[in-house]
Input
Amino acid sequence: MIDTIKWIDGAGTAKAMILDQTRLPHDISYIECTDYRQVVDCIKYLAIRGAPAIGIAAAMGIALAADAISAADAMEFSAKLRPAIDALLNSRPTAVNIQWAAERIERLIENNKTMPISALKEMIAKEGVLILNEDIEINKAIGRYGAEFIKDGDTVLTHCNAGALATGGYGTATAPIRMAIEQGKRISVIADETRPILQGARLTAWELMQDNIPVTLIPDNAAGELMRRGEIDLCIVGTDRTVRNGDVANKIGTYSVAVLAKENNIPFYVAAPLSSIDFTLSSGSEIPIEERPSHEVTNVFGRCEIAPKGVAVRNIAFDVTPAKYITLILTEKGAFKPEAIHTLDPKGNK
Ligand code: MRU
Output
């Protein structure tokens, strides 16, 4: 599978290479980032997107910022790093992974504050690569737990792209599918196209076809009819932020899929690495939901205007699916009922 993001090491010459997902499926090209501000732009303009992938990009962005700092001690170093961390935190609000990655690096600095600055810089760069590599292993663990719920011959509906491209590799929602196929089960996927910017059509369909996984693309509004006809056995989606009561924020349209699944007695699973779970929020109503520019709705990928000039637009990028619609949340620690997800809180708050 193609790399979503790569780190090229070197004191003073380090780079993060970001696959430009705005150009997929037509072109495979990388954006070379030598400055954290370029990483911020890549996240804002969706060259890299998907919750775990933007967490990894943020860690690498912090490493690039760190590399450019001169400081006498860790306190000065942390203070000089702050603007970069804040810019990354403000780049996209809904996925908690950027905050998760930033906090991980802040803890690393705090725990090593007596080290020379050059050693701190090296540690931060290594942490970015570690987050990337760990992410792939986490997704495989999600896959092992999730594959149990997929039977030979099943058709799985997914929404948006929570695949390899949205992560360090292997994907979250696609992990149980990939694992079930590795176990010899015959599985096919229905991919919602995912308006307005078509991550399902451009990214999910593409990455599954690259790996010879049978995939059929549908307009978002066809999902209900396919469910009613009995052509979908289960749904698996990813998440940008899951909270203590099991409510899940994910790409706009996920809530509709979940309600339709419940109406049609179809299990609805959410693949959620711990890095996407926000144990500080108690309900989905507290999740910040990103609203994006109107041109994403009125233009098809900047190429063709499809609406009258000046029309009013709402472009809500994510929605919240209440826990009651979710069968199980699949994590790297196992499968959990949504109401039990808070028991995974690493701080032990129950
Ligand atoms: O706006 P995007 O493309 O970043 O939205 C991505 C999604 O909603 C994914 O489903 C989510 O980030 C989970 S990725 C494993």
In short: The CA atoms of residues 131 and 322 lie 29 Å apart.
